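Self-study notes.
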Amino acid sequence: MKPLFFCTAIVLIYSAVVTAQITYQTSWIGNTFSGKTKWVQQDISDIFVTADGRVFSNVFWDENGGEVTEYQNGDIIRTAQNTHGWGYHGGDAITANAK
C-alpha cells in the first residue's frame, strides 16, 4: 500500500509542476447574441451586397433557421421562411433585385 501511495504522490506532484510551467492563452469565438432575434450565423456559402449596404447571405444549414438572411448595419432585417428542417434547406448562391 505504501509504494502505491508513494507513486501516486509523485505523479500528482509532477503533474502540478508540469502544469504550472505551461503558458497558454485562451480565446473564445461564439455567439455573442441571445439567439432570439439576433445570432451569429454559423457559416455562409454565398453573399450578395446591394448598393445601399444590405447584405444577403445563404447557407445550406443554419442552427437558428436563418439559412437565407438579409442584414443591414449589423442587424437582421428578415429571414426567408420554409428553408429550415424537414427536407428544406438554404442553398449555395444568392442574389437580389429591386423587390
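Second protein, same conventions, sequence then structure:
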Amino acid sequence: SAPGESTEHASDLIERSLRRAEYVQEADFTSLGGLAKEVKCIRKVLSIPWNNIARFRDLGLRTPRGVMLHGPPGTGKTRLAYAAARETGAKLYVLNGPDLVSQFQGESEAGLRAVFESAVKNEPAIIFID
C-alpha cells in the first residue's frame, strides 16, 4: 500500500465503528425480551466488575477482558452488546466483517490494530464485530 494509506484506512475504520455505535443510547437490558439468562451473565461478567473496578483492584481481582457472543442472526447479539455498553458506560466500537478486509497488503491488520489501540486508550471499551 502507498504511504499513509494504512493510517487513513485505520482512522476511517475507527470513525465508522464509533458512528455505528451512536445507537447505544437506545438499548438497555430491560428492552431485551427472552434474553434473561444472557443479561444475567453479562451483568455478572462485565457490568458488576467494570462498574466496581477500584473495588476489584483493592481485592487483588482482575476484571474480565472480554466476552464472545455467538449464534444465528436475529437472536439479539447486537442489542445485547449495545445494552452492555450502555450499562457499563463502555465506549462501543462496532465493526462489520467487510470493514476488516482491504485490497492493500497490511491495511486490514493496521485498521484492526488501530481499533484495538483506541479501545485500550478508552477503557472500558467493547469491540463488537458483526
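Instructor comment on the second fold: The chain has one domain: 5-129.
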